[in-house]
Hints:
The protein is mostly helical.
Amino acid sequence: MRKVFENSSWLLIDKISKLFPGILVLALMARHLGPRVFGIWNYTIAFSLIMASIAILGMDKLVIKELMAEEEETPRVVSTIAFMRLTAALVCMGVSIILVHLMNPDPLYLLCITFSSFTALFQSFDVMDGFYQVSNSLKSVIIPKVTVFLLFSLFKCVAIFCDAPLLTFLWLTLLELVATYVWIVGKYSLQFGPLSLRQVNLRMARRLLGDSWVLIMANLLVVLFMKVDNILLNILSTPEELGNYVVAVRISELWYALPTVVSTAMLPMLFRKKEENPTAYLQTLGRWLRISGLISLMLATVISLSAGMLIQLLYGAAYSTAAGILRIHIWSAIPVFLMLVMVQYLFVEGKYKLYLYSNMASLMINIIVNLLLIPHMGGKGAAIATVAAYFSVYILMVALDKSGQAWSLTCGMIHPARIYNDLTDISHILRKSWNNYLFSSSHKSINP
């Protein structure tokens, strides 16, 4: 648990350090560019992320499993997966640019997608995150990422102050990616040597592709879940409506960072705990699910009640319709928090196809509801579709698990006695940690 806590702490530092500067810079940029330009830029970002989800090749989780199984072959594993992802990324970049240009001949769309598509290329090097996570040294990638992010946030604020055009922000976003990954790849190369084609193992690549096709589809479906509303709003509504929707969704999705951090850090521990003590493994999942439900419910209630104030404070009158969208969309936090627990359970159990089937069915629900509601309700219709789709994913994952463990975990989530015990244990842990901190601080002051 100590290693999980350390990994979670570094991941949380990464998210929190980006949370408040990120939302501030986003708000300033949205005000500066206006709903139309901001909406078009975010449409191309959404499109490039959909294509980038294919370029990941489902390796974001498989790399952890592979590195744990092949600890002595780290350079070979990292080089092979990085080469696979770089190849896929180059193809996806070309497809993104061609498709967006064909669907939207406006030169502004072409300019934005050309820059946005580089995300797929640089995220290929996130394979090193898996290595540092397995070796419990995530700070090696978190520190450079946070440092570069904060530095370029400052640059963007200066650009806004100087009334810079959109092209300036596109270049700054691209240069931020370049600086981040040059640092990370350089540090890894000093430790293990540079990535090399000589270390690429084609047999491993074929095996991994055979194992990952379900995860490739699942990743694509997840990103489609999160971004198909942007695409459909741009088609069925206006860029201005999309701009309002984007600023509302950004506030809502910022809170997804918390369960994402915990789920990423928990995965290696869950693999080990399942092998060592299956009962403790299920108890850990049950507690995690209950805590996630409570936190997400409180979060959705608070944000829904304060949506009007938040939008006015951050984005101003030009984005006034975003408040109504936020009041609806924030309730998607509940199924998202729960779903991230269940996804890790399915992955540890090797039930990849259940995850895929659930996402496929729920994506269809999402698209159908969007098509029905967007023409009449705009962004609010898209928000309703998102909430309905996320709840359907979780329900289907539980229903399709024939072992009954997912259903048992879900039933335990609303068990009053277990909730009370969880809250009592958490309170005890927090008090103990605080007392240890106070004792440590006082000890240092006495013994300089």
